[in-house]
Amino acid sequence: MKKSHEGGHHKTSSRKLEPRVGIFWLVDGKPLIDSTSLSEAEPYGDHLTHPRGHAEMWGQYQRGGLVSQEMEYEEPPRGRVIYHTKTRRFTFLADRCILRDKNVVRGIMSELKLPRNTETDTDNHYRCPACGSTKANEDF
Predict the structure, then answer these.
(1) Domains in the chain: how many in total?
(2) In whole angstroms, how far apart are CA 69 and each of 34, 45, 80, 89, 104?
(3) Domain that holds residue 101
(4) Is the pTM of this model over 0.90?
């Protein structure tokens, strides 16, 4: 089920090797990614980020049959990659269930063309029920 979408459309361009920001889930052990090239990312304070949120994309994935209608967007482990414009570094924010599996992290980072100096961290927004944490009330 490894999917990489750009607003639901696959694109071929010279930006293919450009690093990307985006959102992702781990569904049935496989990454589900929606991303944007860094040059097309949206400003969010001192960061550049993917313009779409988890709730919005999950609804599109449900309508398209990519994910179960019975599952809410915050149930599977999820995360987001952002770019800090001042430090010029990417941050990979994810649920602990994702961060524990280094192969999954490497796979997502490879798909997003992220540099080796990308920081990884947890975030209160990205805690799935399997980790015994409370659900986030808002999306980043």
Answers:
(1) 1
(2) 18, 34, 22, 36, 24
(3) 3-9+16-131
(4) no
